[in-house]
Amino acid sequence: ALTAGIVGLPNVGKSTLFNAITKAGAEAANYPFATIEPNVGMVEVPDERLTKITELIKPKKTVPTTFEFTDIAGIVKGASKGEGLGNKFLANIREVDAIVHVVRAFDDENVMRENNREDSFVDPLADIETINLELILADLESVNKRYARVEKVARTVKDKDAIAEFNVLSKIKPVLEEGKSARTVEFNEDEQKIVKQLFLLTTKPVLYVANVGEDEVSAPDDIEYVKQIREFAATENAEVVVISARAEEEIAELDDEDKAEFLEALGLEESGVDKLTKAAYHLLGLATYFTAGEKEVRAWTFKRGMKAPQLAGIIHSDFEKGFIRAVTMSYDDLMKYGSEKAVKEAGRLREEGKEYVGQDGDIMEFRFNV
Ligand code: GDP
After folding, report:
1. CA nearest 201: which of 266, 263, 131?
2. Which family does it belong to (predicted)?
């Protein structure tokens, strides 16, 4: 499964957020085969469509799909030239598919900025820069190594692939040298394939979490720190999610009724963990299809662009091997016509084959050989 890694400087509220995620966690009984590492928090992906389908079909059981956050350990500062824990920090980031970068945007005299640092004023931009710089320096090192090697081949052998890679490296190198992330460079489709093979850190999709005070979370537009974070994120085309990690820790412990009340008191429509989960899911290019029977209505995560047999394979590899076709209707059609039978009568029930590209909100039933 794809995962988003939570990073941030010390004392910005990462552990508080990760605790909230773990507490809000997916109901284990629904996912008996899931093995979760201690640094991974698995949450259910909120989806109103799943609720609506459940109301319509009234199955015995409803199972949401899940998403995993990874807590990134290690020391940030000096990581790019450091050993041990610093290296571990970078290695852990290399393994995740997206970065959730938590930034402190709350004032609290009792919470030092970083470990015992004297100047405890809050400075989101400096904090973002500190982390990004380590990632940029690590990338610059990989790019420089590669550059030296590929340049030679490109010049002497005139190898086509080497020239293409050299051109990509030549685009990235000066940007990193300027202290900017490689994600700010625009690549065409061919270049993107090459970029992927470089396994850089600063090309990973990112979203910024502004961790604000409990009493401010309902009106984030008024917070100067949040404005600063938004302005910076815009330069990377990145999204900003405003949460209060402290409030989230409390919310995660409540049952549904109390949770709704508490959210209302805070002036929020949904919890920050829910908001963050949706944003991270979207950031990774993930989408949801459903299976809907009387026994069980269930949501499944797929990567946009996947074809029908792959979608079937998410449920079971046998479904993919023996795939024949997928009987498919859209969520909107089910809501419009009210039942599968009515959808069929309206001529909107489709038989999709091997080349069908799954769409978000598809409701599918797979036919396969065993
Ligand atoms: P980490 O080092 O990034 O994991 O940070 P922690 O989650 O341990 O938080 C550091 C300190 O900041 C703890 O004392 C938290 O209780 C406090 N903290 C976290 N979020 C908030 C918040 O929204 N408001 C305030 N006032 N304190 C917070």
Report:
1. 131
2. Belongs to the TRAFAC class OBG-HflX-like GTPase superfamily. OBG GTPase family. YchF/OLA1 subfamily.
Q: Supply φ then ψ for residue 77, to 5 degrees.
A: -65, 130
Distance 35 CA to ligand 1 centre (A): 29
Q: Has residue 341 got a pLDDT over 80? A: yes
Ligand 1 pocket: which of 101, 108, 122, 273 to mutate (most atoms within 8 A of CB): 108
Domains of the chain: 3-44+66-113+205-283 (3.40.50.300), 133-198 (1.10.150.300), 305-368 (3.10.20.30)
Pocket of ligand 1 (CB under 6 A): 8, 10-16, 106, 108, 111, 211, 213, 244-246
Note the ipTM here: 0.95
> Average pLDDT, stretch 37-56?
95
Half-sphere exposure at residue 65, Cβ-oriented, CA atoms within 13 angstroms:
23
Among the listed ranges 4-13, 86-95, 114-123, 174-183, which one has the minimum average pLDDT value? 114-123
CA 12 / ligand 1 centre spacing (Å): 6
Ligand 1 centroid–CA 317 distance in Å is: 43
Q: What is the mean pLDDT of the chain?
A: 93
- CA 111 to centroid of ligand 1, rounded, Å: 7
For 27-161, strand residue ranges (E) read: 40-44, 61-63, 66-71, 98-104
Q: Are 308 and 356 a contacting pair, CB within 8 Å?
A: yes
Please check if 218 is assigned to a binding site. no
The answer, as to whether pTM is greater than 0.90, is yes
- From 6, 7, 11, the mutation candidate for ligand 1 (largest count of ligand atoms within 8 A of CB) is 11
Q: How high is the pLDDT of residue 83?
A: 67
Task: Provide the percentage of residues in the chain whose pLDDT is more than 90.
Answer: 81
